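Q: What structure does this chain adopt?
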Amino acid sequence: MKLLNIQKEIPDILLDIRYCTTYNFIGEIIDGYIDPVALGTKELVKQLKVINSKARQMGYRLKIWDAYRPQSALDHFMTWKDTEDDKMKSIFYPKYSKKYRLKVKKMNKDEMEYQKWVYCPVCGNKTRVRLRKDTVLLHFPLFCPKCKKESLIDAEGFTVRLIGCKSM
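A:
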């Protein structure tokens, strides 16, 4: 699968790729992150161009914080988790221990397939968002491609709570 440089395809998109700097939850450059680059598939870039265009019309810009996660980075996180290093705790996870923050579990095929679609709270049609039992969303902007309305939701597991709604 070929990955494209998102910023080359969408020059006005903002990037905040902290894993190639020391300003991240570990406090050191993460293995596998050499340059502050956001990579994505051709389909992702195509969709981001559409969203970016709409955001710009509304006076907003898109910002990407993290765009890919190489295995070497996951290995780095797991090694760090078992150390006493918590120098960035006060900035990035002041209320939690790092053991809580890095609960990592490999999911089996049945668990990966156990997902439910989120249905639009306005028209009842299926959106493009799926939830898993461990999903937590706070003030998530849910867009319905059918009725073109954006709803603000909270979700925990498979329970969705509507906060508000607006027309696009």
